[in-house]
Amino acid sequence: MTERIVVVGAALLDADHLLAARRSAPPELAGRWELPGGKVEQGETPEAALTRELREELGVEVEVIDRVPGEWPLRPPYVLQVWTAHLLPDSPEPKPLQDHDELRWLSRDELWSVPWLDQDIPAVKKVATRLPT
Ligand SMILES: Nc1nc2c([nH]c(=O)n2[C@H]2C[C@H](O)[C@@H](COP(=O)(O)OP(=O)(O)OP(=O)(O)O)O2)c(=O)[nH]1
């Protein structure tokens, strides 16, 4: 049986921006931008994994809203699934605590101003349709 591990990425949205995160490691991914998140652990729901990863990586508290339809292949055995999320009203602002060295809130017009990881581009295109023009 082929092992398949889901990586959950957050499309963290405010009214008209998406949060992009620049990876600081590993060296082959450093400097490229991604949707913050991480691997779903055994026995964990994707929503719980995303909440945990965003707390660890960004120091935020979020409400996970819904899944962006689709699934994008990463380096085997990983696949990327994306969920939209909002900051809870009493959440701190996101900070690059772990895995990232810069964060940016991007409007739809600014979405392609950062070098996304190649494998994230189809997912970001899908998320773009949820941002106002
Ligand atoms: N979080 C995240 N990881 C991505 C994206 N695109 C992409 O190729 N990846 C890759 C990078 C990593 O090889 C893998 C997820 O690793 P991660 O380092 O974020 O996950 P994690 O926090 O659970 O990692 P770890 O503690 O087990 O090292 O998926 C993306 O948009 N978000």
Describe this structure in words.
This protein is α+β, with helices and mostly antiparallel strands and 133 residues long. It has one domain (5-128): Nucleoside Triphosphate Pyrophosphohydrolase (Alpha-Beta Complex). Helix content is 16%, strand content 36%. The chain is built from two helices and seven strands, in the order ββββαβββα. The strands form two sheets. A four-stranded mixed β-sheet has the order 4-1-6-5, with helices on both faces. Strands 3-2-7 form a three-stranded antiparallel β-sheet, with no helix packed on it. It is globular and about 40 Å long. The relative contact order is 0.29. The site of 8-OXO-2'-deoxyguanosine-5'-triphosphate has 16 residues, from β1, β4 and β6.
What profile does the largest beta sheet have? Answer: 4 strands, mixed
The side-by-side strand order for the widest beta sheet comes to 4-1-6-5
Q: Helix/strand/pairing class, anyone?
A: alpha+beta
Q: Can you tell me the overall shape?
A: globular
In DSSP terms (H or I, runs of 4 or more residues), the helix count works out at 2
> CATH first level: which class?
Alpha Beta
CATH architecture: Alpha-Beta Complex
CATH topology (level 3) name:
Nucleoside Triphosphate Pyrophosphohydrolase
Mean pLDDT: 97
Percent helix: 10-25%
Number of strands: 7
Whole-number tally of structural domains: 1
Family: Belongs to the Nudix hydrolase family.
Keywords: DNA damage, DNA repair, DNA replication, Hydrolase, Magnesium, Metal-binding, Mutator protein
Protein name: 8-oxo-dGTP diphosphatase
Organism: Streptomyces justiciae
